[in-house]
Amino acid sequence: MASTSSLALSQALLARAISHHGSDQRGSLPAFTGLKSTGSRASVSSRRRIAQSMNKNRSLRPLVRAAAVETVEPTTDSSIVDKSVNSIRFLAIDAVEKAKSGHPGLPMGCAPMAHILYDEVMRYNPKNPYWFNRDRFVLSAGHGCMLLYALLHLAGYDSVQEEDLKQFRQWGSKTPGHPENFETPGIEVTTGPLGQGIANAVGLALAEKHLAARFNKPDAEVVDHYTYAILGDGCQMEGISNEACSLAGHWGLGKLIAFYDDNHISIDGDTEIAFTENVDQRFEALGWHVIWVKNGNTGYDEIRAAIKEAKAVTDKPTLIKVTTTIGYGSPNKANSYSVHGAALGEKEVEATRNNLGWPYEPFQVPDDVKSHWSRHTPEGATLESDWSAKFAAYEKKYPEDAAELKSIITGELPAGWEKALPTYTPESPGDATRNLSQQCLNALAKVVPGFLGGSADLASSNMTLLKAFGDFQKATPEERNLRFGVREHGMGAISNGIALHSPGLIPYCATFFVFTDYMRGAMRISALSEAGVIYVMTHDSIGLGEDGPTHQPIEHIASFRAMPNTLMFRPADGNETAGAYKIAVTKRKTPSILALSRQKLPQLPGTSIEGVEKGGYTISDDSSGNKPDVILIGTGSELEIAAQAAEVLRKEGKTVRVVSFVCWELFDEQSDEYKESVLPSDVSARVSIEAASTFGWGKIVGGKGKSIGINSFGASAPAPILYKEFGITVEAVVDAAKSFF
C-alpha cells in the first residue's frame, strides 16, 4: 500500500489544481515558482489554505457540470483497477528511465482515465488493429506516448511486446519517442506537434459521421464507433486545436469525446505564466458539451460517469476536463515541470515505488493484471466476428451500398475509375488549370466512393465544389463538400484524420498556394504519417496578378520539393492536371500538392496523362541521336514559354528539346536509362524557366545550365506586366539558350 502521508500530498496538489482551474479569476492566484514539491513535508497550514481556496472557488463555475458519480457502478474490482493503473505508470517510468529520455509525467497522471478507456469502454481487436469498426484513440499530447505503448502492451497488441518497451526511443524500435502510425500497429495517427492530434481526431470523427450517414440503414448499422482523444494544456494553447474544435462543434460530431489532461504544468512551469483563459467556457462557446472530473487521480467512478454522460450527448462533441497531477505518485517531482520531459532518476524511481507500494521489478506486470487484460483478445475477436456477420447480411440486402463501403474500407478503387478523367487536345479551349482541376474533381467524385473535400473559404476561387453533392453539415453529414472556413491549419490536419480513417477515403483540401504557410505543419505530418491527402493549391505564382506579393508564392514550390514523401505537381494544362490527379488518387501513402494557375493557359501539343506519371518527359524534340543543341525545361504556365522559345530557336537552325518537369519526385523514381533519355548527360546546354525561386534547379540543369526564375518577392500589377518586369519571357529563354552557342 502507498504511504498515507505521501499520497496526501498528491491529493493536496490535486485540490490546488482544482482551485487553480476552477476559478474565473485565475490571474489572482500566486504564480507557480517551478520548484519541486515538498513531498510529505507539506505544512498543515498550507494544505488548509489549499482546501479553503478550493471551497471558495468551487462555486465560481456554474456552467460546467461535474461528473455524476452516484449514477455509475464500478465495472471492475477497485483493487485490480489500482494495480492496473499502477502497471501503466510503472511501465512508463521504467521505459523512460531505461532510455534516459522521455516524458513520464503525463502517463503517471493520465493512467486512470486511459485505463478506463482501454479496459472498460473502447471496442477494438488487439489481433487486428485495422478492424474497420473499432473505436479510434488519439494521444494528441504525443510526448506522453509511453502511456499508449503501455496500453497496447497490456491489451495484447503484438506490436508492443515487453522487449519493445525496453527499446523505447531506440533505433529501429516499435516504440519511438512520439506515436507513429507507420511504425506501430495500434497507433491511429502520428502525433507530437501539439494540437495536430486533436485536429486529426476531428477528422476521424467526421469520417465516422459521414460514413454512418451514407451507409447505415434502419435495420442495419454497420458504421458505429467512437473517437477518443487525450489532449493537454499545450494542445489547448496551439491555435490549430481551436480551429479544429470549432469545426467539430459546428458539425455536431457527437461521437468525438476528448479528455483534457488539466494538470496546469508545461515545460516552462505552471501554466499560470501564459495560459489563464477559461477553457471550459471557450469549448461551450464552440458548441461542445463540457464535463469536469475534479479528481482524475483516483476518481475512477467520476471518470466512468463522465464517459457515460458524454455518450448520452449525441448532437455535439464532449470535452471531459480531467484535473490530474502530473507525475502522480512521485514524492518529490509530482506537480512540477521537472517530471514533464525527463526521467525521474534512480532515487526518485525508488521513492515512487515505495510511495505507491509497488514491489515489482522494472517492466514486470503482475500476473493478475495480465490475466485481467487478457480477455481483450477473445472479446476483440468476437466483436470483429459479430460485425463481419452483420456486414455479410448487409451485403446481401444492400449490395450496391456494400460495394461502395467495401471500396472505402479496403482502398480498392473501382475498375476503370481513371477513364473518367477528362482528356484534351491542342484544339481544346485554353483554361486556367484551377478550372481544369474542377473538371477532374467532379469527374472523380462520380466514380471514387471515398472522394470528398473542400476549401478554406475559397471554394468559388479554388474551384473545388463538387456539383453533384451538397455540403457536409450537422444535419446533412452524408454530403461530400466540406466547408472549412478560414482555418487552413485545422483543414490540413482534419484531412489527415479523414485519410487515416480508412484506406479508401481520399480527402482533398484547397486554398491559395501562398497560404500553405498557414498549414505547413499539417502538410508535413501528412508526409510523415503517410496520409495521402490531395492539396489543391491555386493562384500558384505571380500570374495571379494584382493581389501582389502577399499572395504570390515564390519559395513555396522549392520548399515542398524539399519535403520528404511529398509529390509536388505543377501541371501546365488539362492533360497534365488530369495526370496529376490520376497519380494523387493512387498514392495513398503520399500526399500530393497541385499548384494551379489563376490565368488561362493553352492546351499544349505533346502533353499527356502518361507523361505525368514519369514526372519529367519530352513534349517536343527535333533533334536526333539524343543530342539536342539545347534542352528547355519548364513547369506549369512557363512550359508554354519554353515551347514558344523552342520555336524561335528552331527557326534559327538549332535543335531543341522541350521537357515538362511537372513532378520532380516522380522523375527521381525513374530508371537511369529513362532519365538519360530525357536529360542526356552529354548535353550541358540546359535552360529552366519557372515563375518561382530558382532554388534547387541546379540539380536539373547542371553546373553549366541556366535557371530563369524569381528570387525576390513579387509585386502588384497585371500578370502580363509582372512576367515582363521579372523577365519570365520567351526572350529571356532564347537569350539564355544562345549563351551556349
UniProtKB/TrEMBL annotation:
Q: Which SMART domains match?
A: Transket_pyr (SM00861)
According to the record, the residues making up region (Disordered) are 20-40
Residues binding thiamine diphosphate: 143, 192-194, 234, 263, 340, 515
Reactions this protein catalyses:
D-sedoheptulose 7-phosphate + D-glyceraldehyde 3-phosphate = aldehydo-D-ribose 5-phosphate + D-xylulose 5-phosphate
Q: Which residues bind Mg(2+)?
A: 233, 263, 265
Question: Can you provide one Gene Ontology molecular function annotated for this UniProt record?
Answer: transketolase activity
Q: Which UniProt keywords are listed?
A: Magnesium, Metal-binding, Thiamine pyrophosphate, Transferase
Q: Which cofactor does it need?
A: Co(2+); Mg(2+); thiamine diphosphate
Q: Which domain of life is it from?
A: Eukaryota
Family annotation (SUPFAM superfamilies): Thiamin diphosphate-binding fold (THDP-binding) (SSF52518), TK C-terminal domain-like (SSF52922)
GO BP term, pick one: pentose-phosphate shunt
Q: Which InterPro entries match?
A: THDP-binding, Transketo_C/PFOR_II, Transketolase-like_C_2, Transketolase-like_Pyr-bd, Transketolase_bac-like, Transketolase_BS, Transketolase_CS, Transketolase_fam
Under the heading PROSITE patterns, the entry gives:
TRANSKETOLASE_1, TRANSKETOLASE_2
**Stored Pfam families:** Transket_pyr (PF02779), Transketolase_C_1 (PF22613), Transketolase_N (PF00456)
Where is the Transketolase-like pyrimidine-binding domain positioned along the sequence?
431-603
Q: Which residues does the Swiss-Prot or TrEMBL record annotate as the active site?
A: 488 (proton donor)
Q: What class of enzyme is it?
A: transferase
As to how many cofactors bind and how, the note says:
Binds 1 Mg(2+) ion per subunit. Can also utilize other divalent metal cations, such as Ca(2+), Mn(2+) and Co(2+). Binds 1 thiamine pyrophosphate per subunit. During the reaction, the substrate forms a covalent intermediate with the cofactor.
Q: Which Gene3D superfamilies match?
A: 3.40.50.920, 3.40.50.970
According to the UniProt record, one GO cellular component term is: chloroplast stroma
Annotated positions binding substrate: 103, 340, 434, 461, 539, 547, 551, 598
Oligomer and partners? Homodimer.
Question: What function is annotated for this protein?
Answer: Catalyzes the reversible transfer of a two-carbon ketol group from fructose-6-phosphate or sedoheptulose-7-phosphate to glyceraldehyde-3-phosphate to yield xylulose-5-phosphate and erythrose-4-phosphate or ribose-5-phosphate, respectively. Could act as a stress sensor involved in adaptation process.
Q: Which family does it belong to?
A: Belongs to the transketolase family.
**Which PANTHER family does this chain map to?**
TRANSKETOLASE (PTHR43522), TRANSKETOLASE-1, CHLOROPLASTIC (PTHR43522:SF14)
Q: What is this protein called?
A: transketolase
Q: Which organism is it from?
A: Arabidopsis arenosa
